[in-house]
Amino acid sequence: MILNIKYFAMKKINIKIIPAFIFLIACFSCNKQLDIKPTQSVENGQALNTSNDVEAALVGSYSDLIDFDMYGGSIFVCADLLGDNNELEWSGTYQGMTQIYTKSIPVDNQFVSDTWLAGYAAINDVNNVLSALDVVIDEKKDRVEGEAKFIRGACYFDLVRMFGKAWNDGNPSTNLGVPIVLTPTTVISGESQLPRSTVAEVYAQALQDLKDAQSLLPAKNGFFANSVAASAMLARIYLQQGDFENAANAANKAITDATDNGYSLNAKYADEFPNPSSPGAVPNTPEDLFAMQVTTSSGTNVFQEFYSANGRGDIAITSNHLDLYESGDDRLNLFYTSGGSTYTGKFENLYGNVHILRLAEMYLVRAEANFRMGTSIGTAPVNDINKIRNRVNLPSYTSSDLTLDKILLERKLELAFEGFTLHDLKRTEGAAGVFNWNDPKLVYPIPQRELRVNANLTQNDGY
């Protein structure tokens, strides 16, 4: 029996320069109630006059990126809840998450609004960095620009996936996504109240930022973004678009560059999700192409908060999911029972890093893209799938055994509970219970408070 310790993630948001079409947060309490005050201008807390200033601001961008509602994990946990097809059981008391789980999201849903806020806060951070590149010393300029563009491209991709229709739902050249802001916002004015760009335009911006990052960054860069991570994010975007040739090529580059620079799959699946006997910060594993660092003094792992019985324990796993595994699959050994419910053991460490890009995902992307095209970029699809299967003690497939359904199932089980449910459901045109993949209720509404301060924004269908 595991003690179910209920705790709330306390957050403080430092007021920084953020876009004109969002309100500023004055106080964020643990029950997610906001004291919101509109404001017309915000002082820049740090003048970017020297190279050290800009580098410090870049580090601050990562701090905003790991906000609870962005890459701290909420944007991914909520995507799992919204796309769930009776494989998860939500028992939490947060009304906003209940609304997401039941696909009945109002326009004032706090989690939705705060994801918008957090995403644009991180974007504005890096826009400030990019605006001051001239003062960065030459030997650091490429790295600083590359990291900033990685963050911006990743944020735009994840925002447009949540607030816009899927790439394959109608015409992305006319469907509305999110506003594209490429310069710092310092004053709330008519000029800064931008309309929504199209889904195609936002994807194009994300791709361009990540291509720039890929060319500017080194293959190794500590735990900050590097060229391997940029290639991996590009592969993820191309797969979401159904651009299988580019997806296979980007995944192949990520795999090749990763293995050339010391990355590798962990020997055991459980090793990717370390749970030391004494909770504390842990380093990235050899499989982590990019992860957000959580320490005892900063950062939040929202996966741990909601998926672990040692966190809030609000998300349990149903037999509908467990029945998908083959007998002997080592991934089954990560599940455990507490208080009569079954939980995933992926996120037991309160201070575990938030895995954003794993090498295993790249093998799955390359396998699927190659299979759909009938190609073998890098290697044959069966070899990539068997690499994933063999690690969890499952027998190899032969080429004649392999089907697209088997590849998609392998992906589903390998990446379960890591934020892929909704987006894979949409690109493969599946369903979440009675909700078809293109149901408007599977798209976030534009937050009501954004519509109030920016007359140029329009609401999504169904809200």
Could you describe the largest sheet, including whether it forms a barrel? Answer: 2 strands, antiparallel
Strand content: 5-15%
What's the tally of helices?
15
Q: Helix/strand/pairing class, anyone?
A: mainly alpha
The global form is: globular
Distance from first to last alpha carbon: 43 Å
List the secondary-structure elements in sequence, H or E.
EEHHEHHHHHHEHEHEEEHHHHEEH
Largest sheet, order of strands side by side? 1-2
Rg result: 21 Å
Residue stretches low in confidence (pLDDT < 50, at least 5 long) are 1-45
**Number of E-state strands:** 10
Average pLDDT, to the nearest integer? Answer: 90
Helical percentage:
40-55%
Keywords summarizing the entry:
single chain; mainly alpha; two-stranded antiparallel ribbon; 15 helices; 41% helix
Please give a structural write-up.
- The chain starts with 23 loop residues before the first strand and ends in a 10-residue tail after the last helix.
- The protein is mainly alpha-helical.
- The chain has helices at residues 51-65, 74-82, 95-101, 110-131, 138-163, 199-216, 227-241, 244-260, 302-307, 319-322, 359-373, 381-391, 404-414, 421-427, 448-453; strands spanning 24-28, 34-37, 88-90, 288-292, 315-317, 335-338, 341-344, 354-358, 431-432, 435-436.
- The strands form 5 sheets. The protein has a two-stranded antiparallel sheet. A two-stranded antiparallel ribbon has the order 3-5. Strands 4-8 form a two-stranded antiparallel sheet.
